[in-house]
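User: Predict structure, ligand copper (II) ion.
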Amino acid sequence: MYAFNGEAPGPRFRVKQGATFYVRFKNGIDQPATIHWHGVRVKNAFDGSPGVTQSAVTPGGAFVYAVHCPDAGVFWYHDHMREDIVLPMGLYGNIYVEPTTPSANPAPARSEFLILSDLLLDTDSVIAYGKDAPNFALMGRFGNLLLVNGEPRWRLTAAAGDVVRLMLTNVASARTFNISFGNAQMKLIASDLGAFSREVMVPSIMIAPGERYTVDVRFDKPGTIAMVNSVQSIDHFFGVFSADVDTMGYVAVSGRTSATASASFATLHDDSATIRDIARFRQYFAKAPDAELVLTTAIRDLPIPVMQFMSVDTMYRPPLEWSDGMSDMNWVATGKEVRWILRDKKSGAENMNIAWRFKQGSVIKVRIFNDPSSMHPMNHPMHLHGERFLVVARDGKPNPYLVWKDTAIIPVGSTVDLLLDLSNPGTWMLHCHIGEHIESGMMAAIKVDAS
Ligand SMILES: [Cu+2]
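Assistant: Predicted complex:
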């Protein structure tokens, strides 16, 4: 594995909102690297975007990052070079930014950070990565070993009645997780950059690569409760689904009485600070899109049987790719044959040729359409650096669950409206967070001019 300071996941940073911390980064691995502070609205020069905000730090080289944290929440940092390799291989860690004004809503006494990832192994080793370009370039690399905080068997102990706050971060290259804890009740509290405007009970928590979610979970009865990833696998040829459940860990709930039982668990609180903050943007919710993106792909030179298979008109295209249902074809496809594309609907420009330019302080609606008729459609978790956005509508329907985000999943065939709060000047990457997709071209840069 690769590691930060010998640890995978890397050390967790814990700072107060408004603080700036400095990181002296020395590259001790065998390939160029940069560090990106995912979700943190840092100064552009310290964003760690290779070729955009800095040149990659060569092996043996160094760079000092000043990481200013204006927003409270759960963030993460990772190497931004060859993400198809460095994400599964361990170059990630959490940043927790404590709010300066604590929420009026009570938090449970206990909290845990859960970093979700996966690793693709054969009997004795990690399956090799592509040298010059990623392999598994179609759906991305789905691991066959699921990890929580780098461990295959996560463990937690609790007392009956305990409410535990879990802060989840998905650092997997391609996998979207759907997490639940037996029948334990779960309340959704926060996501990427702070609290939801209103808490909501959820049966499970779906989390795409790059996203964070905070949930309160109540463990009512004594016993052993499995933490599971519960998804639907798909046979692409026949369009047949099958249930797929993986146990990622266990919570041992003892019969002793909880010392921390939270009486307010059943209450769904409003977060007045978030509501006030978002209220300023409501006037823009219904405006026409300022810019539109289409997500698609271009594929060439794959073996003929693979091309024939993928061109079958009746091949089933699921809105979400939960697992790798066609791994042989996926493995053989590399970033040389597959090009993933963000296309500006108006100009037709693609990826780094998209030259969007806005003024600092503008509020921009970007409509993203994930084209289901492309050669190989797939869900894409889109991530914007250095700014924040609201998902205001999905397929024309207003989204009632408002929270500030930096990453949002765009299912196949869906149209998603993002409202961007462009408060931070600089040139910021907008890209798919699937490691194999960004390394196969699926990125653009947005220029925000200082006002
Ligand atoms: Cu993608």
